[in-house]
Amino acid sequence: MAKRDAIFPADRHALYDVHQYSAAIRHGDLLFVSGQVGSREDGSPEPVFEDQVRRAFANLRAVLAAADASFDDVIDVTSFHTDPQTQFDTVLAVRAEEIGEPPYPAWTAVGVTWLAGFDFELKVIARLPPKAAGSSPAA
């Protein structure tokens, strides 16, 4: 079995070490990105919900960039929401700014009761561009 090819952004936040997980795993031309939350560098959540959503997208962009990818390469998104009914308009507004033009990735939104102190999380799968699929891992 192939060894995990872990990907981390250059300025990784503390949650990766505290909770012992990789930001993403590259396998061939696929990138499996762990849930990205609106955490500051020290691992604490942004207190304002919209800022937390924006920071989650920024953290996602940083992980994708570490794999030489962008949101254009994302094929599947799962978002987790602690209070979807009150949060969804904010998420949709930020999402519209972040994901660009159609065709959009597949997207599933899930209401949850707990996100370790956060209110929003993004988990994605991306197909890497040919150059990125064969490059060496970022640590």
Automatic annotation (TrEMBL):
<dbReference type="InterPro" id="IPR038743">
    <property type="entry name" value="YjgH-like"/>
</dbReference>
<dbReference type="Pfam" id="PF01042">
    <property type="entry name" value="Ribonuc_L-PSP"/>
</dbReference>
<protein>
    <submittedName>
        <fullName>RidA family protein</fullName>
    </submittedName>
</protein>
<dbReference type="InterPro" id="IPR006175">
    <property type="entry name" value="YjgF/YER057c/UK114"/>
</dbReference>
<dbReference type="InterPro" id="IPR035959">
    <property type="entry name" value="RutC-like_sf"/>
</dbReference>
